Amino acid sequence: MTELVHEPVLSTDDAASCGPLAHGQDVAAHFHDFGQLRYAASGALVTTTEAGTWVAPANRITWVPPFHVHSSRSYGETDVRLLRVPAELAGQLPAEPSVFTASALLREAYLARTGDPEPVDGARARLLLDVVLAELARARREPLRLPEPGDARLKAVTDLLHADPASPATLAELGHRTGSSERTLSRLFGSELSMSFHQWRTLLRIQRALLELGAGTSVTDTAIRLGWSNPSSFIEAFTELVGQTPGRYRAAARGHG
User: Fold this and answer.
1) What is the CA angle 126-128-129, rounded to 5?
2) DSSP label of 16
3) Which contacts qualify for 179-183: CB closer than 8 Å, 24 or more apart?
4) pLDDT band, very low/low/confident/very high, at 214 (cuts 50, 70, 90)
5) Residues 17, 28: Cα–Cα separation, whole Å
6) According to the model, what pLDDT value does residue 6 have?
7) Between 232 and 74, the higher pLDDT residue
8) N or C, which end of the chain is more exposed by having fewer CB within 10 Å?
């Protein structure tokens, strides 16, 4: 996943992260004095903030409030469509970064607005933005925020897991590799991330599963690639966190558009 840099900059230009992005392309950490909606018309976009990491395949829209530092990584050939939300309207959306499920109406209004050649303060542009904001107010918020640690000892472990989500290594083994005790790391997972090591790794794997399934990988192959012992345990974990089976999610993602 993308990491935040130490000195993010104020950006007034969307050009660096708008349009086609190659697989694995990074956009460095920055922030805006306006809110930003981020939609991948194809591919998938991973957004990392100080509060955590969100995954948004082509049927999800990411919201980043004003002044929230964020960086990105694309998965697959990703067509990113960005939409500015003026600061005075940002209060209609959550105060923290979020990901929403995109309904057909929301998606079409969003694409019409981002593809509209008229001035942003024109009547049609304002109307389309109003439709987008109204639909977002009704949209389901994706619960899969992966919290990211600040403690260097814990970050050393989570970096290893980001690099290899399928790793079967225990917390004790990861601690041995990074120079921390299992007891210390277990305490840090609870105190800093409010979840256990097992819960965090499962959530990381589920986020990666969204990318795999959205790209068309089968449920069985996704389970194997991400370290589950069998497809049944993957299906159970995915359904509990996402609210639908991976097969249904894959069908909906592949049928998008």
Assistant:
1) 65
2) G
3) 179/153, 180/153, 180/156
4) confident
5) 9
6) 46
7) 232
8) C
The two structure tokens encoding residue 120: 């942003």
pLDDT (tens digit per residue) in 11-59: 655 544 456 777 778 888 889 999 999 998 887 888 888 888 888 877 7
What is the number of alpha carbons within 13 Å of residue 25 lying toward its C-beta?
17
CA-to-CA dists, residue 199 to 194, 203, 205, 208, 254, angstroms: 10, 6, 10, 14, 28
Tens-digit pLDDT profile for residues 120-147: 678 888 899 999 999 999 998 887 789 9
In three-state secondary structure terms, 239 is: helix
**Sequence ranges of the domains in the chain:** 9-138, 152-254
Report the distance separating Cα 105 and Cα 227, nearest Å: 37
Cα 87 off chain centre by: 22
Alpha-carbon distance of 242 to 249, in angstroms, equals 9
- Burial class of residue 169 (count of CB atoms within 10 Å of its CB; 0-12, 13-18, 19+): middle
Joined together, the tokens standing for residue 16 give 């660096």
Q: How many residues does this entry show for the chain?
A: 257
For domain 9-138, give the fold: Jelly Rolls (2.60.120)
CA separation for the pair 111, 103 (Å, rounded): 12
**What amino acid occupies position 143?**
P
* Alpha-carbon gap, residue 62 to 171, rounded angstroms: 32
The one-letter amino acid at 141: R
What confidence score (pLDDT) does residue 7 get?
58
The domain defined by 152-254 folds into Arc Repressor Mutant, subunit A (1.10.10)
